[in-house]
Amino acid sequence: MALTFPALPRPTLRRALPALADRPSLPAAATVLLVCVPTGEKDVTAAVHVTAADLASLALVTLTALNLLRGKLPVLSRATCMLFGGIVVAAAVATIGSIDPATSVTGFVRLTQVFVLVPAGVLCALRDRTDQRLVLGSFVLAALIQGVVGAHQYLTRTGASYTGQPIRAVGTFGALDIMAMSTVVSYGLLAALALALGERGPGGNVRLRRAMFAAAAFLTFPLAVSFSRGSWIATAVAATVLLLRVDARLLVRGAVLGLAAAVVLVGGLGLGASGVTERLSSIGSVSAAPDQSVSDRYDLWATAGRIWQDHPVHGAGPKAFPKLRDSHAPLRLSSGSDAADSTIGFQREPLLSPHNMYFLVLSEQGLIGITAYAALFLGLLLGCLRHRRGPALAALALLTWVLVDFLYADIGGTTTVLTSVVLGLAARAAVQGVDLEPKGHAGAESDERQASAARAGARNVGSGSECPGGERAMSL
Questions:
Q1: Domain count across the chain
Q2: Are 245 and 239 in contact (CB under 8 A)?
Q3: By residue range, what is the domain housing residue 186?
Q4: Are residues 169 and 148 in contact, defined by beta-carbon separation less than 8 angstroms?
Q5: Three-state SS annotation for the chain
Q6: Of 20, 106, 316, 342, which cross-links 320 as Cys (Cβ 3.0–4.6 Å)?
Q7: Is the pLDDT of residue 252 over 50?
Q8: Taking the model in full, what pTM does it have?
Q9: How far is Cα 451 from Cα 468, in angstroms, rounded to an integer?
Q10: Does the pLDDT of residue 265 top 50, yes or no?
Q11: Is residue 15 included in any domain, yes or no?
Q12: Within a domain: residue 475?
């Protein structure tokens, strides 16, 4: 007797995937927002540390691959492919010549994820300004969430330890990922400021402009009480570049307003006065009389330089720095940095990287690697500088922040995936003005436009160069 079973309904997942594939900016925005999901007091320097944001970025890459199989990806120019492909080639060469190829394979995968796959996924996902503003809005929302938590930690003295007091704002990340909150808040502040400036003029949205200015103003407080000198410097430089790009007069007015706000908040109300002024004054002494953290950073840079001298062409291999640190470091280098809060108590975290992305690439990937990264960063920066309006302003500010921050920090920790999203935004801004038409897109309006262009013999449409089949090539 044959058994029969009732027909099962069509799985929800099979219905959802095509919908997400048609609007891949949603997982890109989710990648940013899911950074706020607490991971507990896990060691963020562990070899395998997968977060909810990492899983969202994996979904974005998967949808990009799905669109590739469906023939619905925009056409990337040869220059774009070469810039991102150079990162893969450099990492592969460094892995093959590594002192420990088995360990370097995991580093190769991570570098490919952070600097190639996720940025390429974001680049292909942001097809128009609506997509770009969605992702930038997610940066602002994530920053507001972390900013509220961080401000509460400072005001209620429930944050991480700073000068022996539990006042350092760390958001939902905890003391083991001490820089994460200031990174998210910095990104959100710059995105809000850029979105507000983009709404200037008679056709701008007044309510959006005021809301973004208000968000940026609020975020200055949690950024201040994060006591992160690196984030302060990077944010100041990025905001200066942004304001100069829009209108130099705004820079003067912004500086005056910022100084006035600082006087009122710190001098008048006393918010953050006990730590902010001391931390600010220490910035000027980083060369003459550096504190222990700065001194350790200088020693780590020197260590990376010595490793590179031993492996000048292709470096020692991804993830090789921790293995070679002790044999190349000066004796005065500390064994680690201190971390403490009410949850983990006191811990000493090892110094496993040079805390400078450029030195890290130089030591682990050599001249081949640093050339590939320099080409990518320079190409993205020049592409962003070509535009003065819209989401390109935000991409320029965020990319500037990353490039400055890389002078005294490197990838690692919960917010690493946000670096990937910023690189994708910058790549998209480099082709600002092109509404990306997916390869193989079917539609009456698109077909009519292509037919009209063919009849007219048009070789260039809009701001993108026309390719066979009406596809626009994206070029940096």
A1: 1
A2: no
A3: 26-34+47-429
A4: no
A5: CCCCCCCCCCCHHHHHHHHHHHCCHHHHHHHHHHHHCCCCCCCCCCCCCCCHHHHHHHHHHHHHHHHHHCCCCCEECHHHHHHHHHHHHHHHHHHHCCCCHHHHHHHHHHHHHHHHHHHHHHHHHCCCHHHHHHHHHHHHHHHHHHHHHHHHHHHHCCCEEECCEEEECCCCCCHHHCCHHHHHHHHHHHHHHHHHHHCCCCCCCHHHHHHHHHHHHHHHHHHHCCCCHHHHHHHHHHHHHHHHHHCHHHHHHHHHHHHHHHHHHHHHCCCCHHHHHHHHHHHCCCCCCCCHHHHHHHHHHHHHHHHHHHCCCCCCCCCCHHHHHHHHCCCCCCCEEEEEECCCEEEEEECCCCCCHHHHHHHHHHHHHHHHHHHHHHHHHHHHHCCCCCHHHHHHHHHHHHHHHCCCCCCCCCCHHHHHHHHHHHHHHCCCCCCCCCCCCCCHHHHHHHHHHHHHCCCEECCEEECCCCCEEECC
A6: 316
A7: yes
A8: 0.84
A9: 12
A10: yes
A11: no
A12: no
Are 81 and 375 contacting, i.e. CB atoms less than 8 angstroms apart?
no
Query: In angstroms, rounded to a whole number, what is the distance separating the alpha carbons of residues 77 and 182?
Result: 35
In a domain, 450, yes or no: no
Q: Which residue has the higher pLDDT, 452 or 17?
A: 17
Q: Examine residue 447 and state whether it is found in any structural domain, yes or no.
A: no
pLDDT band at 1 (very low <50, low <70, confident <90, very high): very low
Hey, what are 331's tokens?
């004796």
Q: Which residue is listed with tokens 């060369």?
A: 287
pLDDT value for 3: 39
pLDDT tens column, 394-427: 999 999 999 999 999 999 889 999 999 999 999 9
